[in-house]
């Protein structure tokens, strides 16, 4: 009888472990919820005391770099505060929320995730800012390459990883911080009327703005590539 009980306990533990594994593997819900007058952005990945829900009356979904530029230009032209969001937004400190009134807009990169170009000879890859980490890893793996470093959670985007200083645990080369391995990026910034209210600037390590743009928390512009 004791042996049978132990067997039942083992089965029960295995079932419980299986349930825990399945539930933890489920993706978080969409952090954006909109009604007729308001869109609410919450944390996909848990709730912390220093986080808060953001609000804006509108959200837009650009699919190309030019559409992304146009949306920022429209916001700049109309004096709107901008919050860039991703499919699984999960880092929302209070400083990242736009104004609480109607003069704000969410720009989502959820649908801006089509292009990933791999240069095997140079061992580099260029991706749209909204490309998810899992998709990015899978694409470069097919080319016979791999990332030097990456954070553990695959729900982040390429631009999100760079702009928030996300890191893994690699000690190889420059270490585990992903942004330390970036060799160039495109940043969409506000501009004057003569330049269409927004422009794309391309940065390389020799540019004075390069290091600041990499871990800028979205405050200097939108990382588009």
UniProtKB/TrEMBL annotation:
FAD-binding PCMH-type domain boundaries: 52-225
Signal peptide: 1-25
Gene3D superfamilies linked to this entry: 3.30.465.10
An MF annotation (GO) of this entry: oxidoreductase activity
Entry keyword Isomerase: no
KW Oxidoreductase (keyword) present: yes
UniProt keywords, alphabetically: Oxidoreductase, Signal
Family per record: Belongs to the oxygen-dependent FAD-linked oxidoreductase family.
Protein name per UniProt: L-gulonolactone oxidase 3-like
Organism: Nicotiana tabacum
């Amino acid at each position: 009888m004791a042996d049978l009980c132990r067997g039942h306990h083992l089965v029960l533990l295995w079932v419980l472990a299986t349930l825990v594994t399945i539930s933890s593997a489920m993706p978080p819900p969409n952090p954006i919820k909109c009604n007729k007058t308001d869109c609410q952005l919450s944390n996909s990945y848990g709730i912390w005391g220093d986080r808060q829900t953001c609000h804006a009356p509108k959200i837009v979904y650009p699919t190309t770099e030019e559409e992304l530029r146009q949306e920022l230009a429209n916001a700049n032209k109309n004096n709107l505060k901008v919050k860039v969001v991703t499919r699984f937004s999960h880092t929302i400190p209070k400083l990242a929320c736009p104004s609480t009134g109607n003069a704000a807009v969410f720009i989502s990169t959820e649908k801006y995730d089509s292009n990933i170009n791999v240069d095997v000879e140079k061992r580099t890859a260029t991706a749209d800012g909204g490309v998810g980490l899992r998709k990015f890893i899978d694409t470069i793996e097919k080319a016979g390459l791999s990332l030097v470093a990456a954070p553990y959670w695959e729900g982040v985007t390429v631009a999100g990883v760079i702009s928030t200083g996300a890191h893994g645990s690699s000690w190889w080369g420059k270490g585990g911080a992903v942004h330390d391995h970036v060799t160039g990026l495109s940043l969409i910034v506000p501009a004057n009327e003569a330049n269409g209210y927004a422009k794309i600037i391309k940065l390389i390590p020799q540019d004075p703005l390069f290091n600041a743009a990499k871990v800028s928390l979205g405050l200097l512009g939108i990382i588009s590539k």
